Amino acid sequence: MESHKDTSEICEFYRGKHVLLTGGTGMLGKLVIEKLLRVCKPAMIYLIIRTKKFKDPHRRLKDLTESSLFHRLKKEDPVFMERLKIVPGDVSEPGLGLSPADVEHLIEKVQVVFHSAATVKFDETLSTATKINVRGTMGIIELCKKMKNLESVVHVSTAYSHSPRKEIREEFYESPISPQGLIDLADNLSPQLLNAITPHIIGEWINTYVFTKAVAEEAVRKNGLGLPISIMRPAIIFTARSEPIPNWIDQTYGPIGVLAGYYVGATRVVKFGNNVRADLIPADMTVNCLLAVGHQTAKLRYLKMYNKIHHGMDLFDYFSQNTWRFSIENTMGLWRSLNDEDKQFFDFDMESLVYKSFLKGTIDGIRMYLKDEEEDLTYIKRRYRIIKVIDRIARIFLFSGLIWFLWRIFTTVPDYKI
């Protein structure tokens, strides 16, 4: 495919561009960085990174690029780090926590923006979720309005942002509260009071994550007028299908955590509703669609693009026991509009995905990338057989005890005296 990069419209769009990315230290962000640098060759990727757990932004970027995810890129482009620039900041802070000098530099240079920074914890406090998911979005939009060479902005939302609806179309829906109103509540109410009234504020929304994502979309609709901006709504992002390495994964949220728990024997039962469809999408295909959206947004400017895309088991029940109908006409139209080379480089055609093989590979990904080192498969299989035998023995004892109990009831004849 290397020889066809010159004919890829998407590669040509990003080549030599200055790209701003938020959420670059998250799973999706890492894959965006890797794909852009390896395939699209932008001039520079600016990463807004905050200090976290006593690690400054430079240390966090170093740790990030030492991941196995970047091994292929290092072989093909040993100096790729020269095209990554850290911008110290924090999207939860007013003004994104950026210095005046960095703001001025971004205004002058940036042409494409991907806003994927978010807290995705289902049980996050409303205060924290608001500051990151809503204030962060409004901060990015205000920064984009000042950019002198802006061509495209993509806001990464979620397919479940309006999950109280059973059919979710590729359009804006009424926000449950104004973005600024929610920020004012988070800024002015005590954490204790806000936590106490959170159920009343989020109403039909199952958790603070999907609620604040819905409000963030309203910020895009209302505050993003005049910008070349799109929204992408991925569903449940799973392991990578093939790029840059098959089955890669580095987080344990949602169903990945459930599957990992099953894999290590900590979980044996998962609740699913009857006839419920799991809306899973490979991480690398999500990135491919995201980059295609960024390209298409620059062409159409006002494209509204939505993709159909555990702390505890109860947090996941809502999504595993309900089914939604997601409209994907725009996504499929975008796919059909790509030329053959772009379809090879930026594959997000879900019809070609073999789910059985993909989900089987997810187990390998959990074993390889969520553990410090690879485990011996022989040991893993032996451990599984032991757990299976213990389960069967327990079932036999339980069944035998039940039979004995019933036998005692129906064979004991009372001694009645007349």
UniProtKB/TrEMBL annotation:
CDD domains: FAR-N_SDR_e, FAR_C. Its EC number is 1.2.1.84. It comes from Nezara viridula. Its main location: membrane. The keyword Oxidoreductase applies. It is a multi-pass membrane protein. GO terms for biological process: long-chain fatty-acyl-CoA metabolic process. This is Fatty acyl-CoA reductase. GO terms for molecular function: alcohol-forming long-chain fatty acyl-CoA reductase activity; alcohol-forming very long-chain fatty acyl-CoA reductase activity. Catalyzes the reduction of fatty acyl-CoA to fatty alcohols. It catalyses: a long-chain fatty acyl-CoA + 2 NADPH + 2 H(+) = a long-chain primary fatty alcohol + 2 NADP(+) + CoA. The lineage of its organism: Eukaryota, Metazoa, Ecdysozoa, Arthropoda, Hexapoda.
